[in-house]
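At this stage, I wrote out one protein's amino acid sequence and its backbone structure tokens, and that material follows here:
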Amino acid sequence: MNRKGISPLFRRTLALGAAFGVVLAGTLATGCTVYTPGVAVQTPAAVVVDPGPGPGFCPPGQAKKGRC
């Protein structure tokens, strides 16, 4: 034992255990899905832009001016 009363092996074990716990908690939290009755969470829908009549592409600002 050293002067502080905690052996270096014990400190290393605590550090590795803490690191493992952080990685484990992060892994479990990222794959977590919560299902509750009466509450539905939906992913955002894709944004669909309708180009309208014309060449199919209109530069920003031109459609507002009526040039497309």
User: Anything to note?
Assistant: The chain has a mean pLDDT of 75. Helices lie at 8-30, 62-65. The radius of gyration is 28 Å.
